[in-house]
Amino acid sequence: MTTPVYRSAWVDDEVRALKDMATKFFEAELLPHQQRFADQKHVDREFWFKAGELGLLCAAVPEEYGGGGGTYAHDFAIFEAQFGLGDTGFGNQVHSGLVAHYLLAYGTDEQKRRWLPGMASGALIGAIAMTEPGGGSDLKALRTTAIREGDHYLLNGAKTFISNGSMADIIVLVVKTDPAAGAKGVSLIVLETADVPGFRVGRVLDKVGMKAQDTAELFFDDVRIPAGNLLGEEGAGYGYAMRQLAHERLVVAVCAVAATEAAVELTVRYTKERHAFGGPLFDMQNPRFELADCATLARVARVFVDNCVERHLRGELDPTSASMAKAYCSEIQGQVVDRCVQLFGGYGYMLEYPIARMYADARVQRIYAGTTEVMKELIARSL
């Protein structure tokens, strides 16, 4: 008896068709250029335009702002298509999954019309800058300041580990507009990077994995930003970020599950094709049992994250569940990919094999968007 194929309840025919189309696009336009993108530490800008033409950018943004008019489900389907192919270089999870939703949630109608159509077409690449040198998940300890002076803010400080950082056209900055006010002094301001005196991109960072993803240092020296680029209310930025972090953590969990499932599928195929000691590896008990265990872990993570997605689509996902999903799914990804590498043997350690790149890429999933340790602390506070 063949076990029926599991299908996520939130994936209807339209979402499935979008994922299939995205998969074909990434197979044709992304995978053949992975090494070149890794060598240059970013995906070509032309690729962003091609993705925009197909509706793979800002799929959940309303049509009136140039987007696809879909839901979070459409975003997640596109992210799953990419991570399911073992790619992490295209920074769409930040661009469409985070930046666009900050603008939708807190931007004025004028701001949305100014920035979102360009993001949907690929003409504007978006980034969000929270983390600072010497700081991690503690947003209350921010040192980058944006002090109001007339009709401008004067921006000073530095950010690091910023995805899409070197190519970004717009950056949602998390800054202190009132350094003496603690969390109540945190605000969100959008920097338009073109020809801005005092703004400088530092190093594009050389990472263990995710080699093709543009991750950069940013520096601000008396950068003047129009007051009209304030996102939402001054002093409300900390609360805004906390609310959006639940969504961000679910994005990480969704991508983690897609990558975990892909690793299992890849390894099952390899062990059935690879012969040793007179037969396929898959016919031996240990590989079979290892893969049975990995497949089970992947399915449990899938069912959990699907439940979170369904609740998120109804507007019911709580921050604790999002933290659980992020922590659990990223940890499972690391465990499963590691076990899959073992089944590949020496070839699993060769970067020409996708499983090796997946191994390197998986590690940071337990760090960004809040470390596993931070997730546990947030979960514990709810107990």
Give an overview in words:
48% of the residues lie in helices and 15% in strands. It is of the alpha+beta class and 383 residues long. It has a four-stranded mixed sheet, covered by helices on one side. The termini are far apart. 47% of the residues are buried.
Largest sheet composition:
4 strands, mixed
Helix content: 40-55%
Mean pLDDT score: 96
Strand content: 15-25%
Structural class from helices and strands? Answer: alpha+beta
Gross morphology: globular
Which spans of ≥5 residues are poorly predicted at pLDDT below 50? none
Number of helices: 11
The ordered H/E elements are HHHHHHEEEEEEEEHEEHHHH
Number of strands: 10
> Roughly how many Å apart are the termini?
43 Å
Please tell me how large the radius of gyration is: 21 Å
Strand order of the largest sheet: 1-4-5-8
What's the structural blueprint in terms of helices and strands?
Elements: H1 13-29, H2 34-40, H3 45-53, H4 72-83, H5 92-106, H6 109-121, E1 126-129, E2 145-149, E3 152-163, E4 170-176, E5 186-192, E6 199-204, E7 215-226, E8 230-231, H7 237-273, E9 275-276, E10 279-280, H8 285-313, H9 319-344, H10 354-362, H11 372-381
Parallel strand pairs: 1-4
Antiparallel strand pairs: 2-3, 3-7, 4-5, 5-8, 6-7, 9-10
Features:
383 residues; alpha+beta; four-stranded mixed beta sheet; four-stranded antiparallel beta sheet; 48% helix; globular
